[in-house]
Structure of 5-aminovalerate aminotransferase DavT:
Amino acid sequence: AMSQSDDAAGELARRARIFASAQERYYERPPQIERGWRHHLVDTTGRAYVDMVNNVTGLGHGHPRVADAVNRQIRILNTNSRFLYRELAEYSERLLALVPERPSDAPGDRLDTVLLVNSGSEAVDLALRLAQAATGRKTIVSLREAYHGWTMASDAVTTSAYDNPDALATRPDWVHVADVPNRFRGTYRGEETGARYAADLGADLDRLAAEGRPVAGFICESVLGNAGGVMLPEGYLAEAYARVRGAGGLCIADEVQVGFGRMGSSFWGFEQSAVSPDIITIAKPMGNGYPIGGVITSKRVADALAAQGQFFSSAGGNPLSCRVGIAVLDAMAEEGLQENARVVGARLAEGFRALAERHRLIGPVHGEGLYLGVELVRDRESMEPAAAEAAAICERLRELGVIVQTTSERSNVLKIKPPLCLTARSADLVVAAVDRVLTEGW
Ligand code: PMP
């Protein structure tokens, strides 16, 4: 096994002195990263790794177009959104153009309004506030096993035992946690799974109304990213949205991880379920590493905020972040990255599924496009999570030049969310490396 460089050992000790214990890191013996280029990371010893982790840098690391946009705009103007400048409207219009027309029979108004902030947590926080303001109600329904952010409100709807072992016992009373519709290891499997979970959600909504705390908003990831890229069962989201709307609530799609082209076959995660949310939260890849977050909703919902006073974020929607955001959208389109996610993602998924025929540890391969989850289980029937194995496999993959990490509250899913510029050649290399590690050890 490759030993850790002196650089990295020193840096690790430095962090241990300065950082809080709640701040996690990847790896027992992490490499010290010095540079990124496209879908690669390079450490201080000059070693290059294929990066299967950095979904924030959707275009790839070190993208010149983003660098140029930052450099140019920060010399010209950076100020706040109370001033009039053209970048804010230009970027907002570009974002709105990415939202599909709502089906004519969909209730609610056009999604024609953008509020820009600086992170996913802020976007979720704002979305929850919007739902409460627009309905005049308090209760938010979120799903078990979810991660939505670290701020007080986005953390309140975060239910994953990975992030907080006491999560379910400690939610504030305005949060109701509904069952997670995981058809691979959840309450229901097989036929009619989506309808069954949606019916249970409907029963929850009825009970909440009877208790005098009717639903204001329902929030979930459109594909269960933090549960391991698990696709929602057929029909679930459409029926869940219909029931939430029937109960007078708004539907929030958290697209921070799974949206923005990563699905390949669709720009948004919610399109995988052919639904139209009332509020969309976006962040991570918007700025390719430059902090940008946002909420897309209807004017009616957004205007409800006015009853609470004004809304203002000092850096949200500033000319610099808008220029970066525009550069990211331009590069995504010119480089065909959504299409690349579709093609290379399908190749990767096929590669992992072929490995499952030879390696018993591989259970279901989740996801779509370049958001995949390779679930590792000790037994395919009982689905006993292979968490220790997954951690050891990640350490060994690092030695072989592949950076991959685990997800889900059982930490047994290899989470595949590389920059969207991943090449077929690198995808093949990753599959071959996983094959080698499993052949060596399991
Ligand atoms: N929503 C989802 C689905 C996320 O995965 C995350 C971050 N992992 C967030 C929101 C919060 O985003 P941020 O870290 O930018 O605050």
Notes: Residues 119-121, 124, 147-149, 221, 225-226, 254, 256-257, 283-284 surround 4'-deoxy-4'-aminopyridoxal-5'-phosphate (CB under 6 Å). The chain has a mean pLDDT of 96. The chain is about 35% helix and 15% strand.
